[in-house]
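note to self: dont lose this again. the chain is below, predicted strucutre after it. 473 aa total, dont forget to put it in the shared folder this time
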Amino acid sequence: MSFDDLPVEVGPVFEGERIRGKQMYVELGGPKQEKKFELVRVVPSDKIEDGRVTIIGPDIPDIEEGSNVPWGIVIEMSGDKLEEDLESVLERRIHEFTNYIEGTMHLNQRYDVWQRVSKNAVKKGFNSLKFIGDILMRLYKAELPIVEKAQVTIYTDRGQMEAAYNEAMEIYEARDAKVRGMTDEGVDQFYGCVLCQSFAPTHVCIVTPQRTGLCGAINWFDARASARVDPKGPNFAIEKGDAIDESLGEFSGVNEIADSKSLGEVTRVALYSAMEVPHTSCGCFEAIVFYIPEVDGLGIVDRNFKGSAINGLPFSTMANQTGGGKQVPGFHGIAIEYIRSKKFLKHDGGWNRVVWMPSSVKERVKDDIPADMVNKIATEQEVSDLEQLEAFLKEKNHPLAASIVAAEEESEEEEEEEYGMAAAGGMPMGTMTMSVPGAGGVGGFTLILKNAKIHAEKVIIKRMDAGSKKRKK
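---
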């Protein structure tokens, strides 16, 4: 297909292009916008004006350079072989196809969509967001011939996109609900997705009935439909094989696929653990499960949470640690829908191990949290630091409270023992504090040696005279 009539080039070579803040002309959606979305609908042919792109709100000439604007996009399609069940599959390809466009960057999906258009693209003549709609329609028809007609509506006005956004959220929920009654044990095949390998080369997303893809946009039904319609596309069937460890969610067939698709970088994958050989993470995950060593618990933070999580780190910092196709115990990318699953962190203790999450996420999945745990999991509304978190967990009698108290008592006993040994005139091991004054006895610093063994024949402390560089004993 030719794109010679366009001001920028189009092709897979531009996948993975990063547009930094200083390089962008406009940011569409993203973390600065509360509501953003992308939606594909299959509609009757007579409802479509093929090739039409409508913009509701300001276009590039009306947008100040460096601005962030609301973003919503609805692509309506028709074709004799198109079915409603394919909507989410087609929708997920927006990510891939948008990244084919020189000078654009697309991240995430559904209600987390985040795009940028570069200054260089605008200088080349990319002076309307209609180009995005036009290119997407061309690529859909070229790559997926079952798409016969299409039209696009783009929203950049917050008020006018409200109704379309609400409709999109209802559709997403209906899709997710369809798979909730299924179990991983009830199927012989899982599905894989490598759509994000342009950003995370060693990442392979494993989609099961009880583990939605990290992006939240592809469930088991979606992946199956995609693999059938486009056998050479990013989704493919995985024979489960033998259950190596049912608690971990480790299967021989999954390990073989991970090994093959990651070119040997990942040889084992646990589907139900964030701590032991966890599933790799791309960059489109909706949330992160993170380990909190101070309480031996797990926290959850989603990409829409503002500020820092209970461990003092914002989502963006943890995302850099988590993403890129890495397998990082204690930093695990997930979909919000996976939180609802009966397999959620099964090997790690499930909900009995969760100690903190944003109030917005907790409210969203509240009905899927065990009733006896709902009030035992803290949010930003109850605690703001780890000390408060420990107190909260003990007060609410969280399943981890007993181990926290035991650890504190053990620490106190060790300190008492060390103090007693020091008082008796010996310092073979433990904690020792030394205060070293500054010039004239003012200021200075304190040395605290923890769990140290010290053997010295002599200790010499030298003080520098405040008025000269000459040192005195």
